[in-house]
Amino acid sequence: WGRAPSSPLTNLLGMAGGIGFVCCLIAGLCFGSNFVPIKKYEVADGVLFQWVMCCGIWVVGLITVGFENDRNVHPTAMLGGMLWCIGNVMCVQVIKMIGMSMGLMIWGIVNSVVSWASGKFGLFHIEKEAIRHETLNYVGLSLTVLSLALFSNVGTSVKKVAKVNPDSFGSDYKLMQDAEQERETAEDENDLIANMNPRVKHTVGFVAAGVCGLLFGFSFTPTQYERNHGGTHRMFDYIFSHFCGIFATSTAILLIYCVWKRNKPIVNPEIILPGFCSGVIWAIAQVSWFIAIQNLQMVVANPIVTSLPSIVAGFWGIVVFKEIEGTRNIALFVGGLLVAIVGVILVALSNN
């Protein structure tokens, strides 16, 4: 997994058939599909789901320890994991408001733009990346932003999932003195988004997805800072610390939530296995992304990885979940997708 000597030829050969390009494809496929296992289940307020998902992420992180050269704890990488986890908590509600495909597309593109800005301007004291063809780079970025505007006008039809079955809470829960009140509270919370004005729901979901993209985009910045200031340059060595930051933050959120709920959290046990699988899929994608960066230039790997999930999510949204329907909406989606693809290709080529 060491990085080969860099040149336009070796980069192109790597993209065509090398391990870096394969890892980009794996990352894009998994990032675009990691929410599919829980799509048909009611996740209530999403707090339990995000913790179970992060358990799956952490288990994959344990496996990566055997492949790390530097097994020291990296607090900066843990900070990046914390930023990602906060964004992940918001994702469940975003999917309820605007659908999985739209949510993934919006926060994926914002993630791409933020990553570009961090490298271009050296945000938070990380090293600036030299760009050989700045005009090409700016045009590509502008097209990416234009695609975001097109996606924001795509109407989505989010299908409701079944309510949480009170019987699934278990006998211990049903014996609680306030069990009935808790179930009514759960129903009210689950209906809050469904009862929103459609325009308001779309706007709130769009903005929230953008915030998720910001948090995801900056999640690599702390790790990049350490790499530029005396830390190991091997990206793979930061993975477990990154995942530990995710799991620690997720656990803290769950505990705070339980205190807030007076130790009576809303729990749907049906989401435990799908949630864990969702975390494993996401972790595979993230590990693949780290390996892709190690074998390809970041300017090549990042645009590919951040754009492919939009294509995959669009496939799920149109073909399987029917979230994007109607000639106008599909036309806007296809137009935005084509503009996004051209944009990320120009960004990738601007440094070769």
Written account of the structure:
There is one protein chain. The protein is mostly helical and 352 residues long. Helices cover 70% and strands 0% of the residues. The chain has helices spanning 8-17, 19-31, 47-64, 75-98, 100-121, 134-152, 171-174, 179-194, 198-218, 221-228, 239-260, 272-295, 298-320, 327-349. Helix 1 packs across helix 2 and helix 6 (134-152) runs antiparallel to helix 14 (327-349). The protein is globular and about 50 Å long. The model is unreliable at 1-17 and 168-180 (pLDDT under 50).
Sum up the structure in keywords.
single chain; 352 residues; disordered N terminus; 70% helix; mainly alpha; 14 helices
The proportion of residues in beta strands is under 5%
Helix content: over 70%
Q: Rg to the nearest angstrom?
A: 21 Å
Average the pLDDT over all residues and give the rounded result: 78
- Kindly report how far apart the N and C termini lie: 22 Å
Can you count the beta strands? 0
Succession of helices and strands: HHHHHHHHHHHHHH
Low-confidence stretches: 1-17, 168-180
Provide a count of the helices.
Answer: 14
Question: How is this structure best summarized?
Answer:
The protein is globular and about 50 Å long. The chain has helices at residues 8-17, 19-31, 47-64, 75-98, 100-121, 134-152, 171-174, 179-194, 198-218, 221-228, 239-260, 272-295, 298-320, 327-349. It is mainly alpha-helical and 352 residues long.
